[in-house]
Amino acid sequence: MMELDNPGNKPVTADDRGLPRYGRYIAIGLILAMFLLTGCAAGKKSSSMVLTPVTDPPTGIHHQGKFVWNDLLTNDVDAAKEFYGQLFGWTFAQLGRYTVVQNNGRNIGGMVELKTDPDNPSAARWLCTLSVDDVDEAVTLFIAEGGTVNEGPLELLNRGKGALVRDPLGAQLVLLHAKDGDPEDEEPAMMSWLWHELWSNNAEASLAFYQKLAGYDFEGDVSDYLVLTREDQWRAGIRYLDESDLEMRWVPVVRVADTEAVADKSLQLGGEVRVAPRPTESGGSVALLIDPSGARVIIQSWTAPTPEQEN
């Protein structure tokens, strides 16, 4: 197992070993889920889901390169609500077939049910959404750089213009230009999203691509861990994994106060602790969990740096 510590007081996360690569099967599951999410395809309205904006109230401000939302794709939404509700204290609201995830009354994500497919048992995942200034231009870049556009660009009800894509190494995400703007930059709340991390077996290529996509600056080393920055804010990380058979993916991180306690509770609730809690250089700790449906989520205890530490 590779070392998890990283220089500086930044969020750091765990790698995942021994996972099979599912390739096209997962893409199919995500495309189906995206059809459910849109409510609008080829200019025609459907009876599909109504979505929430990624921020409430509207901000009217966009932060290209910021991850602004996460949707869980799962074959059992009721079981997922039970698991995450007890694990993180999240609550949920229903908008038809779309489940809104709330932390202390604030909308932070959603859940979408995938039909059970015995040939595709590991389609469950957290699907991360990245803010871009122009979805059409971003899609054009994906195609030019060897990525894949699974669906879109199209209008997502109440949310904005989006596209479901895979980057040149196969990591899937949603591109979004939010109708009402992006969430403001602020210290991540406890039990909410702290960070987003890309697992890549070619960090140099991943860095080059995402710099073209979002204009990131960066800190760190391509042979270990990179922090992507924009607008003087940490936006995401790229972890190098020397594993050609692993599926490249974006994984979200939830901020917790005690990784040991949360990891233990995950086991009690039927989840798996793939990487046990371990300390980080910044003084916190990090662990990798797998929920009962197979979706991966990282938990991390983290303390914001003081102005003296930042300088």
Report mean pLDDT, rounded to a whole number.
84
Uncertain segments are 1-29, 39-47
Largest sheet strand order: 4-5-6-3-7-10-9-8
Quaternary state of the chains: single chain
What report would you give on this structure?
The chain contains 6 helices and 18 strands. By secondary structure, it is of the alpha+beta class. The protein starts with 23 loop residues before the first helix and ends with a helix. The strands form 3 sheets. The chain has an 8-stranded mixed sheet with strand order 4-5-6-3-7-10-9-8, with helices on both faces. The chain has an 8-stranded mixed sheet with strand order 12-13-14-11-15-18-17-16, with helices on one face. It is globular, with a radius of gyration of 18 Å. The relative contact order is 0.21. Mean pLDDT is 84; it is low at 1-29 and 39-47.
Features:
311 residues; alpha+beta; 8-stranded mixed beta sheet; 6 helices; 20% helix; disordered N terminus
Q: Can you give me a brief rundown of this structure?
A:
This protein has 311 residues and is an alpha+beta fold.
